[in-house]
């Protein structure tokens, strides 16, 4: 299917309007919006869920196939970062620790 330049620009303009319309609605009406308590409580977990959805596939399958072997340095680095984050509750320490384990793993193997 070949799109003309006009169709492509119209599609981009539509995506722009929808994206910024949603974001602008929270800025304009945000002070008047009141979410139910159950929704506010469940929205607290969205960042952790999104981060997990981004990191886990990369750690388990860096080349597209699941790699649960010693040559996959992403896996121990990710596990180390998760353990550090869980026990210390310090994001920067978890990131640095994960990178150190990843780097050492790559260097040693």
Please tag this protein with its features.
single chain; 109 residues; mainly alpha; 2 domains
Please tell me about this protein's structure:
The protein folds into two domains: about 1-35; about 35-109, no CATH class. It is flat and about 55 Å long. Helices cover about 75% and strands about 0% of the residues. It has five helices and no strands. With about 110 residues, the protein is mostly helical. It has helices at about 5-30, 35-45, 45-60, 75-90, 90-109. The protein starts with a helix and ends with a helix.
**Which spans have pLDDT < 50 for at least 5 consecutive residues?**
none
Q: Report the average pLDDT across residues.
A: 91
Which word captures the global form? flat
Order of helices and strands: HHHHH
Largest beta sheet, briefly?
none
Question: What is the total number of structural domains?
Answer: 2
Q: Specify the number of helices.
A: 5
Instruction: Count every beta strand, where a strand is a DSSP E run of 2 or more residues.
Output: 0
Beta-strand content estimate? under 5%
**Rg value:** 21 Å
Q: Helical proportion?
A: over 70%
Helix/strand class: mainly alpha
Distance between the termini: 47 Å
Could you give a quick summary of the protein structure above?
With 109 residues, the chain is mainly alpha-helical. It is built from five helices and no strands.
Summarize the helices and strands and which ones pair or pack.
Blueprint: H1 5-29, H2 37-43, H3 46-60, H4 74-88, H5 91-108
Helix pairs in contact: 3-4, 4-5
